[in-house]
From TrEMBL:
The active site is at H110. Transmembrane segments: none annotated. CDD domains: PKCI_related. Pfam families: HIT. Residues 14-124 form the HIT domain. A motif (Histidine triad motif) lies at residues 108-112. InterPro entries: Histidine_triad_CS, Histidine_triad_HIT, HIT-like, HIT-like_sf. This is Histidine triad nucleotide-binding protein. GO terms for molecular function: catalytic activity.
Length: 126
């Protein structure tokens, strides 16, 4: 079910539980500010999620309230993961759903990293 993308932050969301080690993930990388792991229901040959370690509901929340070191550390983690997975030669896609219109389901900011195949049109058209 889609969420609003606005607070308050729910510490019982699934990514908060992953960060606390309460449920497992297939971890790829972490630094001081970010954790990257495989999406549980991949929609491309490579489908990775990168999440900040801080409690941000959405990109709106992260971009408005995270500190500069967090933003830099998170952004560098995304780039590092893409490069380390060998996605730069053929290209990749980053996507962040914010709120109901985008279909955001998990109320902890995350970036989807897709790659490993031609990814088709940017938006679904019905
Ligand atoms: P979004 O719709 O942008 O909020 O995306 C949420 C993503 O989280 C979906 O692609 C789900 O497949 C993924 N997801 C949900 N639970 C887990 C989990 N326990 N481990 C890894 N990925 C998950």
């Amino acid at each position: 079910m889609a969420v609003s993308g606005r607070g308050p932050y729910d510490p019982q969301n699934v990514f908060a539980k992953i960060l606390r080690g309460e449920i497992p993930c297939r971890k790829i990388y972490e630094n001081e500010y970010a954790l990257a792991f495989h999406d549980i229901a991949p929609q491309a040959p490579v489908h990775v999620l990168v999440i900040p370690k801080g409690p941000y509901v959405s990109f709106a929340d992260f971009s408005q309230t995270a500190g500069e070191a967090e933003i830099a550390g998170f952004t560098r983690a995304v780039g590092h993961v893409a490069a380390s997975l060998g996605l730069e030669d053929h290209g990749y896609r980053l996507l962040a759903n914010m709120g109901a219109a985008a279909g955001q389901e998990v109320p902890h900011f995350h970036v989807h990293l897709f790659g490993g195949a031609a990814l088709g049109p940017m938006l679904h058209r019905s």
